[in-house]
Amino acid sequence: MPRHRQLYMVLRDQITTGALAAEQALPSEQALGEHYEVSRITVRRALQDLSDGGFVERRHGVGTFVAEAPSRLTQRASLTIMGALRQTQPRRLSRSLS
User: Which domain holds residue 81?
Assistant: First the structure.
């Protein structure tokens, strides 16, 4: 699985479990890259995916913040890492993970 997708899932799980609260600022791209030992472009791709999914809001020149829209987050809260892996696997493999 691509590293940006792994980072996306880690951050998404932190948001959906409440470890990162609504309106809370995420660390800078540089800080996230250093913490997770990934490149800045990897962090940017993960944050863009989170933004596209409604989990975070990116504010130019200010930073990235956990989104305030709990309805979208609640709908996805049950999506665990294994659930996400099942969705990304080819159909025949996903049956073996169930």
Answer: 3-89
Asked whether residue 96 is domain-assigned, the answer is no
Sequence-ordered strand ranges (E) for the chain: 56-59, 63-66
Reported pTM? 0.71
The answer to the question of residue 94 being in a domain is no
Q: Indicate the number of domains in the chain.
A: 1
CATH of residue 79: 1.10.10.10
* Cβ atoms 4, 42 nearer than 8 A: yes
74-92 in b/e burial notation, b at 16+ Cβ within 10 A? Answer: eeeeeeeeeebebeeeeee
For the stretch 51-82, pLDDT in tens is 999 999 999 999 999 998 644 554 454 455 55
Which tokens in the block code for residue 78? 């049950």
